[in-house]
Every structure is written in C-alpha cells, then in structure tokens.
Amino acid sequence: MSIGLFHTRLTVSNHLLGAPVLTLDLLVDTVKKKVSGVASIYQSTWPPLNFRARVWGEYSEAKLVPTAESHIILTLDGSPSGPLSQIAQTFGLRGILGADWASGFVDYKYQEGGTWHAVKHAAVSQAPITLQPIPEHPHHAQPLYAVAVQQAQASGDLAQLKSVVSQAEQQLAHSGALRGALEQLTAEIARLEAR
Predict the structure, then answer these.
(1) What is the total count of domains within the chain?
(2) CB 23 within 8 A of CB 43
(3) Strand 115-126 to strand 5-13: parallel, antiparallel, or no bridges (unpaired)?
(4) 57 has which bridge partners?
(5) 24 forms bridges with which residues in the sheet?
(6) Same-domain status, 117 and 58
(7) Is residue 150 a part of any domain in this protein?
(8) Which of 30, 67, 109, 123 has the fewest CB atoms within 10 Å, i.e. is most exposed?
C-alpha cells in the first residue's frame, strides 16, 4: 500500500448479466485514513441507470487472526454535491478489501427516483485507469490571430502583419499545434514583400 496520498479506481459488480456496475474513483489519504471521490453506477438493461455521487468516508486496517492477513474496512457515504451540502445522502457503502485495495467484497445502496436500492456482497476488482492527455498549457488561453491577419492583409499594412506573425511565433515556440498555419503566414508575408 502507498503511504501518503494515492488514487485508486475500483469496479464493483455481482457479475450478473445486466446488473448495475459501480465504479469508484477514490483518493485515499493514508495519514488521516480518509477517502473521497466519485461513485458512478451504470446499468444497461431496463430501466437504464446512470447514477453519480460524490463520496467521502474513512477506512481502517484489520488483521485476520488465523492468517495474520491485513484487510481494509471501508465505509463511504455520498450525495450529489458532497459532504458539506444540505442535500440528503443518496449513497452508502460498507465493505472489506484486500490490503492492496484491489479486491474484496462490499454491500452498497443508492437512491434513485426516491427509492433505495441495495446490492449485497458484490465483488471488488481493480479497474483500469484511463489517462487523458494533458494540454501543453491548460490554463493559458491561446489567442487566435485570424482576424488580425485578415485586417492587416485587407489594409495592406505589412508592418502590422509582421507584428501579428511575430506574436504568433513567440507563442507557438513551445507548441507544435499550429506550426503549419504559422508557416503559411510566413509564406504569405514573403509573397507580400516580393510585390
């Protein structure tokens, strides 16, 4: 088990065809023994289900006496908007996992359409973690220069066009996403200068 803070993604299912499948994306704080994250329940059969709740809870470690094997006892609660919300809880989970957080069994309940539904003794397994590509500069807006280029071209102001291209070159020096467009602008400047 990791020490400190780690992410785990678990799938919970009773492996019956068409039964709901719970996915838990959890952030585990091993120092405070706290857990938080998102619970998603999907069911493809009628009635279709697409349930989602923010979850929070805690865990403790226990050793089984005959085998001295370590286990995790996990307790989670959830609601659509988190633990500090005034919205009533719509999710609950109690279970026992292996020390590696990759297997075990849980009982959980969720409220859908005003009715509580319970799933007993569902198997837990490690879910694949899908990574999304992170943009090169996720918090920096990328200005678009098309309007400035068109205005400079329409006015025939070569100095303004060079200035816009220079700004674009500086910004795109670290990004290959618009390099082709920059090459076209540079070729257009060369053509205009040749006239």
Answers:
(1) 2
(2) no
(3) antiparallel
(4) 35, 76
(5) 10, 39
(6) yes
(7) yes
(8) 67
Average pLDDT, the chain: 81
Mean of pLDDT values over 170-186: 63
Could you tell me which residues come within 8 angstroms of residue 44 by beta carbon, excluding any fewer than 6 positions away?
18
Sign of CA dihedral 86, 88, 90, 95: positive
Tokens of 138: 């996720």
In tens, the pLDDT along 2-58 reads: 567 889 999 999 888 888 999 999 999 999 999 999 999 998 888 888 899 999 999
Q: Among the three residues 126, 158, 185, which one is the final residue of a domain in this structure? A: 126
Return d(Cα 158, Cα 80) in angstroms, integer.
Answer: 56
Q: Is the pTM of this model over 0.90?
A: no
Range of the domain at 165: 146-194
Q: Does residue 166 sit within a domain?
A: yes
Q: Is residue 13 part of a domain?
A: yes
**Residues 82 and 99: beta-carbon distance below 8 Å:** no
